[in-house]
Structures are given as structure tokens and as C-alpha cells.
Amino acid sequence: MKYQDITVETDGPVATLTVNRPDKLNAMRNETADDLRAAFAALEGDDTIRAVVMTGAGRAFGAGYDLSTVDLDEGCELGPVLENHFNPLVRTIRRSRLIVISAVNGPCAGVNVGLALAADIVLAADNAFFYEPFAGIALVPDGGNTLFIPRVAGRVRALSMMLLGEKIAAAQAREWGLVWAVHPAESLLAEARAAADRIAALPPLAAQRTKQLVTAATEDALDTQLDLERDYQAELSGTPEMIAAMSKFVG
Predict the structure, then answer these.
(1) At what angle do helices 30-44 and 87-95 cross, to 10 degrees?
(2) Is residue 197 situated within a structural domain?
(3) β-bridge pairing 121-125 and 181-183
(4) How do 51-56 and 99-104 pair as beta strands?
(5) Cβ(228)–Cβ(80) below 8 Å
(6) Could you list the residue range(s) of the whole structural domain that residue 38 is in?
């Protein structure tokens, strides 16, 4: 299967999905989310695949949504973007039988934070950081951020991160519980693959049911929260404040 924005490599029971837009710091466009969802669907149908590593090409995991794809003169409807592209991807990752490891190899911003945290295990390079820029461009966090971060890091840390717009370094993210382990950048992918190999060697149904139980216990509100993010983002899309902030942001 051909993809526009990602590469898919399989090696035994492990697949690696790499967002391949390094010139854009792997910023996500609608097609990127669709590619990832299609890749997961294909891997779901392959009984030999047990685990997936998600990462980005080059020096970034992902710079958030690619705002250069938004035509401000034509209006800005972000509600349908979430409903049709990104929320289905978050749900796919969470509900996949596959154990998903995100290897955050550099800057991770906006919707990419949600995608990283949607994984079952999060590993980060020592030079990575997590960044929520939404309020600064008159929008709200999406991609599941408003569920994942408060559930793990707590309400005060989540709101401070989102409203102050400070970059959270990998070591601090580990202290908060957002990241399982931090590795030197040069060894991150090898560490992610080693973890994936360990998981792939487990009895598959035991790993799958464990994921399902923990997800059910901790994130029963995922659908409701994704819908709420969609609705609030739709409300803010196209406001004068948002248009002005985004025009300045994209330069």
C-alpha cells in the first residue's frame, strides 16, 4: 500500500510507522492522519504483527497540525478536521489489539502530543520536549490532550502547561508520568525496538487483554472528551482572535 506522508517497515512481529515530513518537522496534515489510520488497519489484519513503534523522521516527532495547510481566506473549520481525521486516529490507536510504543525523538507539539500519549508506552529522547501552543493561537488543545495529560500529570500541571505554553523537557515529562523512560537520542529507536521485541514475545492475547483492561479502567471518557474537543475547537475556529493569531504564527 502506498502512503503519502509515512513509511511503514515490518521486521518480524514489529512494525515501525514513521511520519516522513522532516522538512515540516513532521507537522501533521489531514493526509498524515489518514495514512497512519490506514497503516494501523493494514497491520491489524496481519496476525504476525504484535507491536508497533511510532516515530518521526529527522529531528522531530511532530510539530503539531500543519497550519500552512489552512486557508484563512476560505474560513477555518477545524471541527471537521478533528471529526474526520484526528479523532478517528486517536481512537484507532487506543482500541488497536496491537501494543503501540511512541518513540518521541525530538520536539512534540500540539496534536502530536496527543498522538504520542495515545500510545501504550511512551519513550523519549533526552533532547525531546512536549509543547501545547493552542491557547496562544486562540484555540483549545485537541488530539486527546485534555484527557491524557490531566489524567496522568494532574489538573494543575495540565492547565499550567496548556495556558502558559511552556515546553516540558523529556526529563520533566518523565517525572510527571507522561513518559516511561528517557534515552539518549542516538539510542532511542534501538530502545523502542527492544521494548517492542519484549512485548511481541508475550502471549498475544494476554498482552491484548491487559491493554484493554487498563484502557477501560482509566479512559472511559475518551469518546466524550474527543467530541468535546471537537466542539470547542469548532466554536473557536474562524474567530477574529484565532485568525489574527494564526496569521502571525504562520508568518
Answers:
(1) 20
(2) no
(3) parallel
(4) parallel
(5) no
(6) 6-187+219-250
